[in-house]
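Supplementary Data S3. Sequence and structure tokens for construct A.
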Amino acid sequence: MFDIGWSELVLVGVVALIAIGPKELPGVLRMVGQWMGKARKMAAEFQGQFQEAMREAEMADLKKSFDEVKEAATGFTSNNPLTSLQKDVSDALRVDALDKPAEISSATSVEPPATPTTPAAPTPETFVEAEAHAAANEPLAITRDVEPAPVAQDTAPSEAIKDAKAS
């Protein structure tokens, strides 16, 4: 910073020893060190404040440019027919409209959907008809009888069963 070399520092130290004296030199060096610490602290504080101001100025510039881009984008989309078409398509494809019942206008008369009913309880005639079919040995429905395939039983266990038991 000041471009001072070691030889110049030694010369300043010898002059200070002669001018101040060996008794006073440690106190003076301590005081000079404290002043240097204060100066460094003040320089670091100034540098931090300066960098903070630069960041704030940068943020203000970024916000200004962002606002300009946003205004340009809103101006562009307000006159765009594609935007209105896209809005219409997204409104038509909304899924939440399927959960709600359709609105019925008063000009058209539409019948409300039929409500499901529960089946009637069986009557005694139903049981009489079932008993008549059972007495005649007739099935109520036509079914196909399936015969089970004969299962061959081996007296000695096969290799697959031995492997399954081993594992």
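Construct B, processed identically:
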Amino acid sequence: MGHAETAFEPAHVAVLTVSDTRTEHNDTSGQYLAESLQEAGHKLADKKIVIDDVYQIRAVVSQWIADEKVQAVLITGGTGFTSRDNTPEALIPLFDKQVEGFGEIFRMVSYQEIGTSTIQSRAVAGMANKTVIFAMPGSTGACRTGWTKIIKEQLDASHRPCNFMPHLGK
């Protein structure tokens, strides 16, 4: 039994940069994600930068989770091991379900690019209120890896055998 063909549907995607030093002027990672999702046919729902603080990250992401217009959130930064890297700690309590495979696949693909340094990536993803949330490291290269090798296909309703689009709010 074959899968019915499903046409591409644009998702409304918000982008969050978590950084103590980035501004709109030098946020190459957030800008890369915003441009890439739009080039793929999605809509940029919102874009923000917050300092690496658990409560500020949660506040912004919680607002987007509650917004019926936001279907996906892409987060760059705060996934390392320094004392200021708090993105996973901020997000995991918000998830209804964790998408363990994202971090696993991200590290597997990243290993081909940066070798064993990939073990220091705490890339995470989850679902919350019919919103999929992907968090990846802050480098533009890591964002390119996450977007091109994983997220782009998972936000495409025509990708088979499965993708996140049927699980997202409208």
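DSSP finds five helices and six strands in the chain. The radius of gyration is 15 Å.
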